[in-house]
Amino acid sequence: MSNKQEQWWKESVVYQIYPKSYYDSNGDGIGDIKGIIAKLDYLQELGIDVIWLSPVYQSPNDDNGYDISDYEAILDDFGTMTDWDELLNHMHSRGMRLVMDLVVNHTSDEHTWFAEARKSKDNPHRDYYIWRPPFDGKEPTDWVASFGGSAWELDEETGDYYLHMFSKKQPDLNWENPELRDSIYKMMKFWLDKGIDGFRMDVINMISKKEVLSSYEDYENQRAKLKDYAFNGERVHDFLQEMNKEVLSDYDIMTVGECPKVTPHEAKLYTDEARKELNMVFQFEHMGLDKIKGKSKWDLKPLSLLDLKENLSKWQKELENTGWNSLYWNNHDQPRVVSRFGNDKEYRVESAKMLATLLHMMKGTPYIYQGEEIGMTNVKFNQIEEYKDIETLNMYKERVLEQGRDQMEIMDAIHKKSRDNARTPMQWNNSKNAGFTEGNPWISVNPNYPEINVEHSLQDPDSIFHYYKKLIDLRHTHKIIVYGGYDLLLENHPAIFAYTRTLGNERLLIVNNFYAVEAEFLLPENLPYKAAELFIANYPVDESEPISRIMLKPYESRVYKLTL
Ligand code: NOJ
Q1: Domain count along the chain
Q2: Annotated catalytic, 202?
């Protein structure tokens, strides 16, 4: 089946909320559900269709809610189930949809399933998790967890190790066990029957571990195998097809699977409509272009525009007829894009708009992460104590305290890549704590809030906010932006990222100067057109100016509609 079928989730723009940092309604320094309700007018003004809400479930917060101890209860910090019901009602009455985070590769070690499982080897819940005996008195293999250290933790009581791909407080679930799968499906129905509109599925391509677990023969040299086999395991498609049949297919919802290390070929397996698995995946290839290949995210290298063009175009073309793309620059795990790929100093506004245009005119469902719409930037805390993210803190401990590496160099990597760049509080206005809380924020506010905040953005008709609003509006009013075919132009141009979108006898021309110096755009000769109408631009444009040659200003973006 091709992907030509029209679907609401293809026509939507999604806004991600990281609740802990959005808006605090009760002065405890932590964002909450009532705080989100209070900001729905703002989101409606922006024009988004769907909210993806990062986890609000009960959790000891080892990984800010991605370690869930009760899937069917709301964390006290965030409010109550009644607050949540109210949020859903308010959203639905405004025509907005709600997508919840589904974290089922692992639970918290404080989940009752795990508390039961560790009681004894014959506990009925034992097999909900992955256990192995010690190898020669130590861990079963040399696997390393995503947040550092061994991926195995000894359970003193029963003498076996359990697997945790993330922190040791996030034991991995055993998807081979049909009872576990059944429990997950029941939980999913609990939320779907409450009326939610979909799931964002956390590291969903890591749930099939059969292959990786049967592939190790001894302790040493298993690391490479973990990388090769832990993602897109043998049974993952069986599991997702089963989940689709048992649960998803009964509801009109959207699904997006977070899939690290996924290639377009695999993404098509997950999202081909005929295969009945997911609607789209989050791929990570473009997020890896500014790190040294084969190294960790902290080992930085400058982004090459040619690599970015090649990569994003590959995804556009490969998923042109099968599957569907998600489009994103930001989320709660990534640094702020304007600091990362744009210019957060003299061209903050221009470059944020350019990056937005580049992404939002592509084919796929766009995701906006809170604060992106006002051009929020990375933060530079000088003290490691100001950082809260477990991944950042573990890396610092390992590299600086244990390996004695240069502290300045590591702090520089943290400033550029820490997940806390995305997690500083949303900047609402220029009052204390950026208007995020009346109390002490759980993480410090970015000191640039007096300049960068929602109130300013709403007042200034030329703001990044109003530009995003217009991009969203264009997508809602022109099917070509949703369904048109994509073609890259000027493949080897070192500074310009230009492409077209084509549907019937309409074509869009999208031109972006990726850098702070002027660049000359020459329209390729094989692009004839009768008339050109300017759709959006991030500088004033003389509309009578011919488009065959354009001198683009720093970070200039323009979108024209061409009549063929
Ligand atoms: C991916 C989530 O986006 C991230 O925040 C989390 O730490 C890991 N999965 C583990 O759940």
Answers
A1: 3
A2: yes
